[in-house]
Structure formats: C-alpha cells, structure tokens
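hi! just following up on the protien thing from before. the input was this:
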Amino acid sequence: MFNRPSPLRLLARARARRARGEKGAVAIEAAILTPLLILLLFGIIEFGMLFKDWLAVTSSVRAGTRMASAEPRVSTFAQDAADQVAKEGAALNMGNVQELWVYKAQTTGTNAGYPVGGDSNFNACTSCVKFHWNPATKKFVAYSNTWAYTAQNACQGDAAHDSVGVFLKIVHPGVTGLIFGNMTIKEHSVMSLEPIPTTKTCK
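and the predicted 3d structure came back as:
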C-alpha cells in the first residue's frame, strides 16, 4: 500500500526547495551588485583624488598671485611667485605641470583677468613669464620672459594700474583608470599690484 508523506515532511521539503531557490536568487543578486559596488567605490576614490588635486591647484595659484602682487617692480617677482606655487602645491606632482605663467592681466573688456595678448583659453600672452619644472632642482625655471619688472605700472591712483595673474595647467592621472584616464586641471588667479606711492619709481 502506498504511504503518503506526512504533512510535516511535505512542509519540510517545500521549505528546503524554497531555501535552495532563495540561495540561487541571492547568488544572482550578488553577481550583479558586486561589480556595481566596486565601480562605485573606485569612482569615489577617483573623484576624491581629482578634487584633492583641484583644491591644491586653486590654493597654489592664489598663493603665487598674492606673492607676485606684493612685489611690484621687484626683479624676482615672477620667480618668487613660482616658488610660492611649488611650496603651496607640495601635494601635487609638479612633474605633471604643463604650463605655469605669471602674466600681466587685462583689466577691461570681455577678457579682463586673462593675459594681455591672449584670451580665456590661455593660448598666448605678450607680457608674461613662463616656467617649466626642473625635477633635478625641484624648482620652477623660467624659459620665457616678456614682462620686465621695470615695465610694471604700480602707481597709486593711476587708472592704468597693472594687475598680475598666475595660471597653472597640470595633468591629473587617473588612479585606477576605470573611471577616466588623464584629466587636465586649469586654474588662474588675478590681483592688482600693490600700489607704490607716486613719489617713488612706480612705472
């Protein structure tokens, strides 16, 4: 005579089948979600490092501009500004710097704040000092100088009073390469030269 399983046994079998099904669903969900969570983690790391470098670039150009503006008609104004950029941006890999300019800024018009003889793309300048990074000395070295300190106008109350800007362009390499490769960070800052009394040589 055929013996039918007891209700308790049937219930146990149903629970076992359901447990196996739930385990399979969990495995599928884990296979789908794990790569997404890893990608999210790498994204947080990548953009965190990018934001850190952007903050360092912003801080360094501002420090360089403050230095240059405080030394009107001083022969080392540009080099001192570049040295200050290197000091303030110590967290950056200066070997990745593509451009560092200390430039005379336009004070009027649509391109105010950008280099004289150039535009907002920083493709050119007619009054600036350009630097490249020397890894041997760990310093910025000027390789082009078209803005003599003796040509600066720092006269107090003069409508043609000069402003100085610092422009930095650096490559930020991706940490993992999964989110992005290399990113270019560009930043500039502009300030008026500290005024010199007209009783002294101010232009």
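The chain is about 35% helix and 20% strand.
Strands lie at 97-105, 128-134, 139-145, 163-173, 182-192.
cheers
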